[in-house]
Amino acid sequence: MTPTRGAPRAAPRAELRISRLLTMGIGLTSALLVLARPRAVLEPAPMPDWYAGLQLVSLLVPTMVAVLAPRLDLRALRRGNAATALTSLALVAGAGVAQVLLAPDDRHVPWLLTSLAPGALASLIAWGTRWAWSLLGTATAGVQLLRWTTGDHTVGASVNDLQALLLAIGLLALSRLLLVTTREADRRWLAARATAQHHAAEAARHDARERTAALVHDEVLTPLLLASRATSPALQEAVVSHAARAHRLLKELAEPRATSPSAPETLTQQLRGTVRAEDPIAAYSDQVSGTLGIPPATAAALDGALRQALTNSIEHAGTGARRAVRVDITAAGVDVTIQDDGVGFDPASMPRTRMGVAVSILGRMRAQPGGSAQIDSRPGAGTTVVLRWRPPQPTRVATTRDVWLTGAAAERTAPWRRFQTLLGVAFVAAQAGLAALAAAADPPGAWRAAVALVGGLIALGLLWDPPPRGHGTGRAAAVVALLAGPATLSWHAAASGRLDFTELWYLTGFTWALVLLAIRGRPGSAAAGAALCGLTVAAGLAIAGPGVGAGEASSSLARAVVVALLAALLLLGLRRTHNALLRLEATELEHLRARTWEQARRAELMARSHAVDATSGPMLQRIATGAPLSEAERRTCVALEGRLRDHYRGGRLSRDPLVEAAMAARIRGVDVCLLDDADHRIDEPTLDRIAGWLADQLDGVQAGQFVGRILPAGRDGVAGAVAGAHSAVLRLDGSAPPPGHNAPRVLPSYP
Amino acid sequence: MSEAPRCPSEAVAGEQRVRVALVDDHEVMALAVAGLIEDTPGLEYVGHAPCVATLLERGLAAELVLLDLHLRDGSSPVDNVARLEQHGARVLVLTSGENPYLIREVSRSGVLGIVRKSAPSDDIRATIARAAAGRPTVTTDWAAAVDADPELPSAPLTAREREVLALYASGLGAKQVARRLQVSENTVDDHIRRIRQVYGRLSRPAHTKVELYQRGIEDGYLPVPTR
C-alpha cells in the first residue's frame, strides 16, 4: 500500500461537486430556454429593448457561471449563483416596470418568466434553503400579480404556471436534499479522517512503546545487571559482547527502518529461513502469483506464528512425524499451511495448558488486521495449521443505490414526509382538476384525460413508498410505460386535429413522476422516460402541424421534458461521481492511516530510545570497551538496571525526586524495589506526594532492601515503605496508624 | 560440571545432587547462573536452552528448572511451566521484574517461587537451594503481584491470610511477618500454603468486560500490557 498520490486533499469535495453539477444544470437549462424559443427571448416584442437585454443577461449569466463552474470553489460558485438569482429577480421586477411603459393592450407576462426553477435553484446554492423558498415564493407571487394586473391569464397559462411551480418546488426540494446529504457526507469524512489519524497515532505509539520495552527487557537489562556481578572471565567476555550489541540495537531502534511493505519474495525468503532453522528436514514449497505489499508487522507475525506452529508440531506430533510447509502468495493475500502427519490431537479434549501454543498462534495472527489462523487436527490423522492474511480492503464501496438510501434516510424524517405528502396531495388534486377541465373542454376526448389521469396516478402510487433497495427495473419500466402510454394518446388527439395544452396537461404534469423516479434511484430510466415522452409527443405535434395553442403546448412540453431530462442527468452524474468519490476517500483514508502510523511510531521510538540511551548508553559503551569495571561503576550498573526496571514495574512512581533517591540508594548498595500496584487512577499531586514521601524514606536507608509500593485500592493508606524489619504507611488524611501497628512513621537511619 | 566441595553441614544426606537446568534466551545468563549454581553445594548445573521445547528436545534431565518469565519465542509462561512439570521438573521462575501481569499469570501455577534476577546473589542462591529441596519461597514480587490481583477480593481467603499476603507484598521477609503477626513462622508458612492453593484454584470468570480482557491476555489473544 505504498502511497502513490500527492499530498492529500484537506477539504472534502462532495458538496463542491454537487454544487458544480447543479450550477451547470442551471446554466444548461438557461441555454436550452434560449434555444427552445429564441424569438421569445431575443425579440420579446412589444417589450422594450432594455428588457430584451435584461432577458439576455439573465440567461447569459448562469450560462457563463456554468461554463466556469468546474474551476470555481464553493465561495465563487455561491457568488455566481447569487448573480443568477438576482438577475432572475430583476427580470420579474423589470417586467413589472416594463408593463407601465407598455400600452394596455400589449401588456402580457413574458414567456421566460414562467420558468422560475433556475433562479430558485441558484438562490439555493447561493444563500440556502430559506432564501430559495422566499425567492421562489416572491417570484411566483410577482408573476401572478403581473398576470392579474395585465389581464394575461388564461386557463392554459394558469395551468402552465401551476405545473411550472410544482416542478420548481420539486427540483428545489431535490437539490436541497442533495446539498444537505453531501454536506453531511463531507462532515463525516472530516470526522473519519480525524478519528483515523487519532487511532493510527495511538496504535503507533503503543507499538513503539512495546518495541522499546521489549528491547529493554531483552537486551539492555541483562548486560547491566551481569556487568555488576561478573566474576569469571568467560562471563566477562559474554557481558562485553552483549553490551556492545545492546548499545548498537538501541541506536538502530531510533533510526528509520524499512517501513515500506516488502515484496512477496522477501517474505518467502524469511519463511523459508525459519523453516530451515526449526526443522531442516521439513518439506517447503511456495508459490507467488501476483504482487502484494506485505507490511513488516504482518511479515513478523507470520514468521513468529510459523515458528510456533513448527515448534509445537516438533513437540507434540511425535518422533518420526514429518512436516510440510506451503506458502501461497497471490494478489488477494497470503496463506501459510503447516501440515504434519503425526499423532494429532483432539481439540475438544485438550487441557487448557496444552492449548497454550495453539491459542497464542491464533492470538498473534488475529492481532494483525486481516490476519487469521485455523488449526485442525484429529487423533492419528496429523495436524494442519493454516495462517492467513488478507490485506484489509478499503471500506465497502457503496452500491449505486446507497447514495439514494442516504437521501432516502433523509426522506424518512417527519417534516420531509409531511412536505412530500402535501406536495403529492396538491399535485394530484391539481391534476384531477385539470383532467376535469380538459374533459369539460372536450367531452369526446374526455376518455383520454381519464386514461391519462388513471395511468399517472398509478405511476405515482408505484413510486410512493420506495423499498429499501430502491425500485426494481420492472417497476421503473412500468412507470415509464404508464407515462409514455398516454403520451401516444396525443397522436389520437393530433389526428383529430385538436392538440393543445389542454391535451398535454397530463404529460407535463406527470413529468414530476419521472423526477421522483430519478430521486428514487433510477435516473437512467427517468431520462429514458422523459426522452420517450418528449419524442412521442413531438411526433404527435409534427403530425398535427401548427395549430391553435400548439406553440404554447410545445414550449411547455419542451420545458417539462427538459427539466425532467436535466433532473435525470443530474442524478446520473451524481451517481457516477459519488462512487468514484467513495473509492477515492477510502483509499485516501488508508494512506492517511499508514502515514500517521509511521510518523507517530517513528517519533515515539526515537523519543523512547533516546531516553533509554541517554541514561544507559554511556554505561553500555563503557562495558563494551572490555576494561574491568570499578566498584563505583558496578554500583552504577545496578542503579541503571534498577532505574529501567522502575520505569515499567514502578509505573507512576518513576518520577523525581524518587528516581534520583533510588539511584543514590542503589549506588550506596541498597536493593531498591519500586512497585506500582494500584490499578485505579491517582491524580498527579497525590502521586507527587507519594513519590516525595518514598524518597524521604529512602534517603534514610543505608543498606539492605527497600520496597516502596503504591498500594492497591481499598487498603489502609495509599503507599507503603519497608526496609528490613521496619515499615511505614502513607495515609493522605494524616491519621495515625491503628493500634497494634506500632511501626514508626519515619524509618530510622541505619548507622 | 566440576564437583563443588561439600560442606558437611549442608550435605544433603545420602542423596545425589539436584540437577538444575536453565531456560533463558540469553547465553550470557546461562554463564552467570552456571557460576552461581556451581558455587552452591548440593546442586548440579546440567545445561541451558533458549526455550522449553529445545530443553526437552535436548533431553536435559533436571529436577529443577529455572525458567525465565518472558521468553522471546512468544510462549506463554503458564504453558511453559505446565510442560516442564509434565516432564517431572519443578520450576523456579526468574524474572527481570518489570511486568506484573506476567508474574500474576504464572503465580497461579505451582511454581516454587518467582525470583528477581537483580536480587542480591545470596538471596537468589538461598531461593534456589530451597527450591532444590522442593520448598517454595515467598518473594516480594510474587506476593505483590498476587496481592494486587483484581480478583483477589473474590477469593475465599480469611482476613488473616490476606494480612499475611499484604505484609509479604509490602516487602517484609518471613521472620518479620511472623513477628508482626505474633505467630510462629510455621503458622505463616501454613497460611502461605493455603493462599497458594486457593489462588491456584481461583476460577477465571469472564462476565464483565474487564474480566474478559484479563482472560484474553492470559489466553494469549491480547498482547500483554506494558506501561
Report on the biggest sheet of chain B.
Answer: 5 strands, parallel
The number of E-state strands of chain B comes to: 5
Please indicate the percent range of residues of chain B in DSSP E strands (runs of 2 or more).
5-15%
Rg measurement of chain A, Å:
41 Å
Please name the two chains that share the biggest interface, counting residues whose Cβ lies under 8 Å from a Cβ on the partner chain. A-B, 66 and 55 residues
Order of the strands making up the biggest sheet of chain A: 1-2-3-5-4
Oligomer: heterodimer
Order of helices and strands of chain B: EHEHEHEHEHHHHHH
**Which residue ranges of chain B are poorly predicted, with pLDDT under 50 across at least 5 consecutive positions?**
1-12
Largest sheet of chain A: 5 strands, mixed
Structural class of chain B: alpha/beta
Number of helices of chain A: 21
Shape of chain B: globular
Number of β-strand runs of chain A: 9
Structural class of chain A: alpha+beta
Query: Could you tell me how far the N terminus lies from the C terminus of chain A, measured between alpha carbons in angstroms?
Result: 66 Å
Would you mind describing this structure in some detail?
The complex is a heterodimer of chains A (751) and B (227). Chain A contains 21 helices and 9 strands. Chain A has 751 residues and is α+β, with helices and mostly antiparallel strands. In chain A, the strands form 2 sheets. In chain A, strands 1-2-3-5-4 form a 5-stranded mixed sheet, with helices on one face. In chain A, strand 7 and strand 8 form a beta hairpin. In chain A, helix 4 runs parallel beside helix 6. Chain A is elongated. Chain B starts with 17 loop residues before the first strand and ends in a 9-residue tail after the last helix. Chains A and B meet through helix 7, helix 8, helix 10, helix 11 and helix 19 of A and helix 1, helix 2, helix 3, helix 6 and helix 7 of B.
Task: State the main characteristics.
heterodimer, A: 751 residues, alpha+beta, 4-stranded mixed β-sheet, 9 strands, B: 227 residues, alpha/beta, 5-stranded parallel β-sheet, 10 helices, 5 strands, 12% strand
